[in-house]
Every structure is written in structure tokens, then in C-alpha cells.
Amino acid sequence: MMVTAGNPWSWILGYLVLGVTGISPSSLALPLGSSYPGAHIINGEDCTPHSQPWQAALLVDNELFCSGALVHPQWVLSAAHCLLDSYSVGLGLHSLETSQEPGSRVLEPLLSIQHPEYDNPSFANDIMLIKLKEAVPESSTIRTISVASRCPVAGEECLVSGWGRLASGGLPSRLQCVNISVVPQEVCSEVYDSLYHYSMFCAGGGQSRRDSCHGDSGGPLICNRSLQGLVSLGHIPCGQPSTPSVYTNLCKFTDWIQRTIYTS
Questions:
Q1: Residue 119 DSSP code
Q2: Which of 64, 135, 166, 193 could bridge to 73 as Cys pair (CB 3.0-4.6 Å)?
Q3: Active-site positions?
Q4: CATH number of this structure's domain 45-263, picked from the four choices 1.10.150.20, 1.20.1250.20, 2.40.10.10, 2.40.110.10
């Protein structure tokens, strides 16, 4: 299987959030699954191979369009705005250019369940559970990650990973990792103004310009060894010092996640 990190779903670019206070037309908010020429994990580096064994790749015709995280042997968490009619889920992948990577699996979803209060225009409650057609046994390349029960703390350092484009504009052959810090809620709400929702939190956008960006949607943000958030929204251009990216705040959804997994 040859997997390439390209996203043909340019229709997502039809959604641009206008009227965000203090944001110029050159730095509009948009979902980070979008295909955009500058798409990348900002100022990251190659992850240690299989150091993020919960990382999932959402694929159409072997092309990446979003990411996710394995939270149960048969369930993957991703962003609700990543839902498509037909796709597959890759697990145990490090390089998207490696044919038949040892220890990897590509599975079909049985169910795709968006949060019942997901709001498309505002991206509130941007979370989706994907039930795989079969449970996947854990291995050195595939492993589940626990969902954080506590909410993020401002200043906490976390790690986000994804296969978005590199800062140079090229496609990475390997999974990218970057450390970023959680931003205070009041800063997040001020930056995103009417778009901000309690189901969100912000991280990145500091002076180091480390950040997630377009193509990384649904990908995991790991804080204190737990899955704290999912990549959701950001600005054009990414990685600006005053404009952090938005993550789905998973501590707000622990009950829904558990209930959905054990009743579906």
C-alpha cells in the first residue's frame, strides 16, 4: 500500500470564518483539515518512529485528509468536521510513503458518530468517534491512549503530531511532532471572539512559532501522557505569535465518549 500525504478535498476551503475581532482578512480562521498551500506542522521535527502509536490517519484512496487517535481497540477519536461518506483508517503508520509499512493496519469504519451538538458553522463540539470494523490488538506500533479527565492548564507543555506539509512547502515522509504550550482561556476567547466556545481551548502561537496547521485536523494533542485535545481550527497564516490554534477540549466530553463506546 502506497500512502501519500495529499488532500484533494479543496471544497473545505469554502468555509472561512469572517468577522473575528482583531483578525485581518489575511489571517482568517478555518478548519485545519483544509487543503492549503502552506499546510504544515510549524517548526516541528520527525517524531521518533512509532513514539505516537495511537496516531491514526484518515485516508481516501490512500491519501491523507485528517488524523485521529486510537482511544479503544475498536474506536478512534477525530474532529467532527473530518467526516466523509467513505474513508479508511490507517494505524501503526510512521511514513506515509512506505508501502506495506511493517506493523501497520488499514481498516474500514463501521460507524462514524459526530457529537450530537456539533455545529458546522462555528465548529463547536468538534468531535467524532469512529468505530472500526474490528478491534485491533495492541503492539509495538499500535497502542491506545487514555483521554484526559482533567482540563488543560495554561502554560502546560504538550505535544501535537501530524502529517501536514513542512514549513518548506514539501510533504513530509514521516510523522511530524512539535511541543507547544496551552494558552490561557481568556486569551483564546479574546482572539476567537464570537467563534469561541467552551468546548475549545487554544495552544501554540507563541514566539517560537510552533503550531499545528492545515492538514492536521483531528490529530492528537498529548499533555501529561493523556489525550488532551484534537486539532480543530486555526488562522491563515499559521504559527503567528499572537494567534494560537484551537483544539477540541476533550475533558468536556469524557462522559459522551464513554457512553458512546459502550452503547454503540
A1: B
A2: 135
A3: 81, 126, 217
A4: 2.40.10.10
